[in-house]
Write a structure and sequence with these properties.
75 residues
């Protein structure tokens, strides 16, 4: 992904994380609460099998749509 798109995606991840604060279900693995920013980044990496920075530019909109899905469906 080019630098401009990677910066946009990172800002989008941060914004999505802000929206998920206190909305993720509790987890025994995270007794002090879950990190919504890490949750988004890990989910993106899990779906695309690579870091958001390494995702090809032609999948930019797909990444944005997936982040929107995560915000709408916290888990």
């Amino acid at each position: 992904m080019n630098d401009e798109n990677a910066k946009f995606i990172w800002a989008y991840i941060q914004d999505a994380g802000d929206k998920l604060v206190d909305k993720l279900p509790p987890s025994r693995k995270h007794p002090k609460g879950r990190n919504p920013y890490a949750h988004i980044a890990i989910c993106v990496k899990g779906k695309f099998s690579i870091s958001y920075k390494e995702i090809p530019d032609d999948k930019f909109q797909e990444v944005i749509d997936y982040i929107d899905y995560l915000v709408e469906n916290p888990s």
